[in-house]
Amino acid sequence: MKLQFNKTYIVLTILLFITEVLIAIFVKTGFIRHTFGDYLVVILMYCFFKSFIKGNPFYIALSVLIFSFAVELSQLANVLKLLNLENSYIAKLILGSTFQFSDLVAYTLGIVTVIIVELKLIKSCIL
């Protein structure tokens, strides 16, 4: 694993970030806000790391998934209250405020999508 700037992944990161911001601003309820946004956020994080790190896609994807699970599971421990951030909109937006099992499913499906796309890209480069 080494540091290396990748223009493709930084463009994807920016586009995904803009999409997430638009969802946060304009979509207040429903599938897009609560599930699709979680699906996209792990893809966003993966693309962000791939923007600067050249390494095994599987390990990077697994690291993003573990981090995402840790954040979601921290909601069970009410970390926002422990850190006295329960009234912070930004903290709630980034860390979330309520545990949802469906979020874990969305994160997993997002990372599975990343791995499938990466495997197809690797295969197409080899052939």
Automatic annotation (TrEMBL):
Membrane-crossing segments per the record: 9-26, 32-49, 58-77, 104-122
Keyword set includes Transmembrane: yes
Coiled coil regions in record: none
UniProt keyword annotations, A-Z: Membrane, Transmembrane, Transmembrane helix
InterPro entries: DUF2809
Keyword Acetylation part of the UniProt annotation: no
Protein's name according to its UniProt entry: DUF2809 domain-containing protein
Native organism: Mariniflexile litorale
